[in-house]
UniProtKB/TrEMBL annotation:
Keywords: Signal. Pfam families: CotH. This is Secretion system C-terminal sorting domain-containing protein. PANTHER family: INNER SPORE COAT PROTEIN H (PTHR40050:SF1). Residues 1-19 form the signal peptide.
Length: 539
C-alpha cells in the first residue's frame, strides 16, 4: 500500500470512528484558565498560514479571566494554520501559530510565561479525553533534565465561537530556549561550521529527506524515513544535506556491525548515550505507539561544542499511556521498541532494538530507571501530577465536553472508553501505575548495574536554602563532568563546573542573588545524567 493510500485509509477510518456527535454550542464568559481569543478574516487552511489577531487574557494565578477583560498576555498579529497528521480529521482542530509584527515579520514574545519565541502550537486534545497526556509526557521528560515543550492550558474562542480546552505549547525548533544548537547558515559548508546545528526527524515521507539504507528488523518492504527539520528542507544546502545524511548512515552502519557497543567503532563514539536512554525510558513508560518511527527528533551541534548525536526532544503523546487499541498500546506489559509494524509505511528502525539489547546500554537503562524511580518518576509523584492537573481542569473540561460531547463514545484510536471525565482520569492513573510496576520488574536493578552508573551526586544542602548550598559529585573513573543550574522555564542560570573530575569534587553554589523559587541542578558525566530540584528562598 502506498504512503498516500495508507494515509487516506487511516483518515477514512478515523472519520468513521469519530463521526458523531461533532459539536454543541457553549455559552462561555469566564474561566479559571487563561483565555485565548483568535480572529481571522478567512478560513484557516493546512498551510500556508493566514493572517489573524490573537488576544491572551491571563490575569494571574488565582484570578478569574473574563472574555471581556483587557488582554494581559498578548494582543497582536499572528499567522495561523491547521496542523497535525491524523488529528486533522477531528472536528476539534489544532493550530500552528506564528506571532508577528504589523508588517508580518516574526515577533518573539513570551506567551503565558514561556520564553520568548514566535512559533507556537495550540494542541487540541480530542481522542485524549483526559486532556493531559502530552503535558504529562513532557513533564516527565523535563524531569529527566532534558528539554521538552513547555505547556499551558487555556480555553480558546475562534471568531467568536467557543472551541474548547487547548494546550498552548512550544513548537519543536532550534532556539536558545528550546533545542539549543547552533543556527546553521547557508554559507557554512566546510570544516567545523558544517558539523552543526541540525534537527532531523523520523516520520512520514511527506517532507524532503531520505530513506534509511537499512530495513526494519522484521519482514516489511518499507524503510524508516528521515526528514530535514533545521535547516528546513527549503533552506538546507547540498553540502549540509550530504553531511547529516552521511552522519546518520555512519551511525546506522555502526549499529549494524557485529559489535555496536565497541567504545571506538560502535555507537558510544557518535551518540549521547544518556539522551537515548532518557528518550527510550519516557517513551516506554508511556508506551507511545508512535515512538521511534514518527515525531521522533534528533539534534546535533557543531563538533566544537558537542560532536555527539542527541535523541529528542520527545513529542506527540496524545495516543500514548494506554490510549491506543493497536500495537498493544493499551497493554501495560511489553516493550514498544519490540513492536513489529509490518505493513505500516513507517517502521521502527532496527537500531532501537539493537541498542536496548546491548549489555552496556541495557545496564545504562536499568541504572537510570532506578534513579528516576527514586526521584521524579515515583508513582505517587506522577499520580499527584495527574490529580492536580485534573483539579485545575475540572471546571473547563465540563465546557469542553459540552462543546465536543465525546465522553462515553469511542474516538479513534481509543481502547478504553470512560463514561465520565473522572473515569478517564482514573484509567490513566491505573494504567500508568501498572506500567511503572511492569517496568520495575523488567528492569531489575542488580548490584552490578547499580555500580555501573559511574556517577553519584549527594543531595544539595541545605534545601531549601537562603543562598549558599553545596553537594558532592563522585565518579568511578576520571571523566569530564558538567554541572549547570536551570530555572523552571528551562533557562540556564549558571554553570558551576565543566571539566575533569578525578574521583570526587565538592561543588559550592552561591545563589544569594537569585529570586525565590525552584531550580534544577543538572550533573552530566560521560555516561549518565543526574538531576535534583532545590528551593531558593531570597532573604
Amino acid at each position: 500500500m502506498s504512503s498516500l493510500l495508507h494515509r487516506t485509509f487511516l483518515l477514512c477510518l478515523i472519520i468513521v470512528w469519530s463521526a458523531a456527535p461533532i459539536r454543541a454550542q457553549v455559552d462561555f464568559t469566564s474561566s479559571n484558565l487563561p483565555i485565548v481569543l483568535i480572529e481571522t478574516d478567512e478560513e484557516i487552511p493546512d498551510e500556508p498560514k493566514v493572517p489573524g489577531r490573537m488576544r491572551v487574557i491571563d490575569n494571574g494565578s488565582g484570578q478569574r479571566n473574563h472574555v471581556g477583560d483587557s488582554p494581559t498576555g498578548y494582543d497582536g498579529f499572528i499567522g495561523i494554520e491547521v496542523r497535525g497528521a491524523s488529528s486533522q480529521s477531528f472536528p476539534k482542530k489544532q493550530y500552528g501559530i506564528e506571532t508577528r509584527d504589523a508588517s508580518g515579520d516574526n515577533r518573539n514574545v513570551s506567551i503565558l510565561g514561556m520564553p520568548d519565541e514566535n512559533d507556537w502550537v495550540l494542541h487540541a486534545p480530542y481522542s485524549d479525553k483526559t486532556l493531559m497526556r502530552n503535558a504529562l509526557a513532557y513533564h516527565m521528560a523535563r524531569a529527566t533534565g532534558r528539554y521538552a515543550s513547555r505547556t499551558r492550558w487555556c480555553e480558546v474562542v475562534l471568531n467568536g465561537e467557543y472551541v474548547g480546552v487547548y494546550v498552548m505549547m512550544e513548537k519543536v525548533k532550534r532556539d536558545d530556549g528550546r533545542i539549543d544548537v547552533n543556527n546553521l547558515k547557508p554559507d557554512e559548508t566546510s570544516g567545523d561550521d558544517l558539523t552543526g546545528g541540525y534537527v532531523i526527524q523520523l516520520d512520514r515521507p511527506d517532507e524532503d529527506g531520505w530513506y534509511s539504507a537499512y530495513p526494519a528488523p522484521y519482514p516489511t518492504s518499507f524503510r524508516p524515513y528521515f526528514q530535514y527539520r533545521e535547516p528546513a528542507a527549503d533552506e538546507i544546502v547540498a553540502e549540509q544535506a550530504a553531511y547529516i545524511q552521511a552522519f546518520m548512515e555512519d551511525f546506522e552502519s555502526r549499529m549494524a556491525s557485529g559489535d555496536p557497543a565497541d567504545p571506538q567503532a560502535g555507537y558510544p563514539s557518535v551518540i549521547d548515550v544518556g539522551s537515548f536512554v532518557d528518550f527510550m525510558l519516557v517513551n516506554e513508560a508511556a508506551r507511545n505507539v508512535d515512538a521511534y518511527r514518527l515525531s521522533t527528533y534528533f539534534h546535533k551541534d557543531k563538533d566544537s561544542n558537542d560532536p555527539l548525536l542527541h535523541a529528542g526532544p520527545v513529542w506527540d503523546f496524545n495516543i500514548a499511556f494506554g490510549n491506543a487499541y493497536y500495537y498493544d498500546g493499551a497493554d501495560p506489559e511489553g516493550y514498544h521498541y519490540n513492536t513489529r509494524t509490518f505493513n505500516n509505511t513507517q517502521p521502527i528502525p532496527f537500531w532501537w532494538r539493537e541498542l536496548a539489547n546491548t549489555e552496556a546500554f541495557r545496564s545504562d537503562m536499568t541504572a537510570r530507571w532506578e534513579s528516576l524511580r527514586a526521584g521524579p518518576f515515583q508513582t505517587d509523584a506522577l499520580l499527584a501530577f495527574i490529580d492536580s492537573t485534573a483539579a485545575v481542569l475540572d471546571e473547563a473540561q465540563a465546557r469542553n465536553f459540552r462543546r465536543w460531547p465525546v465522553i462515553g463514545r469511542r474516538v479513534w484510536p481509543n481502547d478504553f472508553v470512560g463514561e465520565t471525565y473522572q473515569e478517564e482520569v482514573d484509567y490513566l492513573k491505573g494504567w500508568l501505575s501498572q506500567r511503572l510496576a511492569w517496568l520495575d520488574g523488567s528492569l531489575p536493578v542488580s548490584q552490578e548495574a547499580s555500580g555501573a552508573r559511574g556517577l553519584a551526586v549527594t543531595a544539595a544542602a541545605p534545601n531549601p536554602s537562603r543562598g549558599r548550598l553545596s553537594f558532592q559529585v563522585t565518579v568511578d573513573a576520571p571523566q569530564d563532568v558538567r554541572v549547570e543550574v536551570y530555572d523552571t522555564r528551562g533557562r540556564r542560570v549558571t554553570r558551576l563546573h565543566y571539566g575533569p573530575v578525578l574521583e570526587a569534587r565538592r561543588v559550592e553554589w552561591d545563589a544569594s542573588g537569585l529570586a525565590s523559587g525552584a531550580y534544577l541542578i543538572r550533573v552530566e558525566g560521560e555516561r549518565f545524567l543526574e538531576t535534583q530540584m532545590v528551593t531558593i528562598v531570597a532573604p
